[in-house]
Amino acid sequence: MRLFVALNLPSSVRDALWGAAAPLRDLGLPVKWVRGDGIHVTLKFLGDVDDAREPELRGALGRAVAGAHTLPLALGGFGVFPDFRRPRVIWTGIAPEPGLEILQDQVEREFAPLGFPTEARAFRPHVTLGRASREARAGAFAGLEAALARLTFAETALVNSVDLMQSTLQSGGAVYHVRHRERLP
Question: pTM (2 decimals)?
Fold first, then answer.
């Protein structure tokens, strides 16, 4: 199973963000767009994991969320990683939220002893909207920066669970399925 730990956004916020990003999808860029129903915040990518390990992953997730509460995530602004010359990821930002930072750190700490190395890069909370095709040339993204600057989106999402997600790659994009959910009070 290909797994990751995520915060799933309320459907109303996902739908609004999907609509706000429509002009980007209309540009015909060499980008694999995240499906509207798959918009989420990744806390930790686990990769391919044997089914038999699911109980220990559920336990780690339960320990990671202990003491956490419902998170208000202020989404807004658009950008790319690493830069506009050769973007790999197109995203919507998330305003700094101490509870989110603490939760992500706890996820890292609980999954590291299970053989999932901690991320070397600093956590930069965002919602991935699309990933550039590996074969795309830098010139294929001309106009992207201006297009992102024209978009507006500002919503606050109340997130009340942390999910262990399964990702199944299909020709139309990845399909996500919740394997286990830990509620946040």
Answer: 0.94
Q: Within its chain, how far is the Cα of 122 from the centroid? A: 15
The total number of residues shown for the chain amounts to: 185
Residue 173, Cβ neighbours under 10 Å: how many? Answer: 14
What does the alpha-carbon distance between residue 158 and residue 4 come to, in Å, rounded to a whole number? 20
User: In 3D, which of 117, 127, 119, 3 has the Cα closest to residue 54?
Assistant: 3
Q: In what order do the strands lie in the sheet with 154-159?
A: 31-33, 126-132, 89-94, 71-81, 154-159
Q: What is the CATH number of the domain that holds 165?
A: 3.90.1140.10
pLDDT in tens, 41-73: 999 999 999 999 999 999 999 999 999 999 999
Residue 46's domain comprises 2-183
* Count of domains for the chain: 1
